[in-house]
Amino acid sequence: MLQTCQKIVEHTVICFTLEEDLDLRHARWLRGAIGRQTNRPEFHHHLGRGLIFQHPLIRYYVKDNRAFILGMAEGAFLLRGLPPLDTLSLGGREYRIVDASIETTRIELGPCEQPLIYHFVTPYLALNQMNHDQWHCGDPFARRRLLQRIVVGNLLSLGKAVDLHIADRLHAEVDLVPDQHYELKPGLSLLGFRGAIQVNFELPEFWGIGKSSARGFGTLLREEV
């Protein structure tokens, strides 16, 4: 029986339709383009010269010729105050916005009775520089256990960011395979994973977990049962 109730939180999705298809790099440039429109650190996830070390409540994701900005809780309210845009400057190029939409809802977030299956539609950067060696030296069982703990840790961090106290034990099963290394900045590349996870935690569609989830990595889509 659940000890923790799910929390109802605000959720906002802005979708820009452009004239050309985009790829994963554009999510990082999208964050920069939107960050230049506001001086709020919640949009660009930097405070001064350092990073904000909490689960982001605004994230960026691209698919085909659409650019998405998703906000949860406080991030949802901040998105609703963005000014209208006609173009986006992405990677040194100007892209004309041919259509724009905004969807505002309230969602249930948090532990649930039945486990849910999500698959990653963008690479999941689960490991950091410290636990990469632990994963590299482990046997298959140890690797799977490490990834399970990391998934649970990611979800606990999300709960903390929206002031959701999680008393229930979260359980994660993983079916993940290494993909390739992705360069986040010069001198820093992290290993990505593809596959699926099963967790007793409800998330909104196309939310993300893991390193650089604000920049489009670790995007999850729930599988319909």
Characteristic key phrases:
225 residues, alpha+beta, Alpha-Beta Plaits, eight-stranded antiparallel β-sheet, two-stranded antiparallel ribbon, 5 helices, 41% strand
Structural commentary:
The chain contains 5 helices and 10 strands; from the N terminus they run βααββββαββααβββ. The protein has 225 residues and is an alpha+beta fold. It folds into 2 domains: 7-106, Alpha-Beta Plaits; 111-222, 2-Layer Sandwich (Alpha-Beta Plaits), CATH 3.30.70.1900. A hairpin with a 2-residue loop joins strand 4 (58-63) and strand 5 (66-72). 22% of the residues lie in helices and 41% in strands. The protein has helices at 24-35, 41-44, 74-79, 132-137, 140-161; strands spanning 7-18, 46-47, 50-51, 58-63, 66-72, 87-90, 93-120, 172-185, 188-202, 220-222. Strands 1, 4, 5, 6, 7, 8, 9 and 10 form an 8-stranded antiparallel sheet that branches. Strands 2-3 form a two-stranded antiparallel sheet. The mean pLDDT is 91.
